[in-house]
Amino acid sequence: MITYTLICDKDHEFSEQFDNYDDCMAKLKAKKMKCPTCGSKKLEKGLSAPSVGGQAQPDFPTCPAAAGCGNGGCALKG
Length: 78
Ligand SMILES: [Zn+2]
Known about the structure:
By secondary structure, the protein is an alpha+beta fold. The chain has a domain at 2-45. The protein has one helix and three strands; from the N terminus they run E-E-H-E. The longest helix has 9 residues, at 21-29. It is elongated and about 60 Å long. The structure holds zinc ion.
């Protein structure tokens, strides 16, 4: 048995046990399960690793020139 985290289209997470990965995917495809919170059947398998927020964004402005403008006077980091 293996436990996977499932996520519905309303972002509710819950865990379900499956025989294996294929069993999980088959049941997702057949829509045999539903979210225990809202009853939605639009489920996706969550990531096995815990998610850590969104994507990291640089907190400094970058020069719009893709490879850097090469201008020493440019105030933005390339
Ligand atoms: Zn839900």
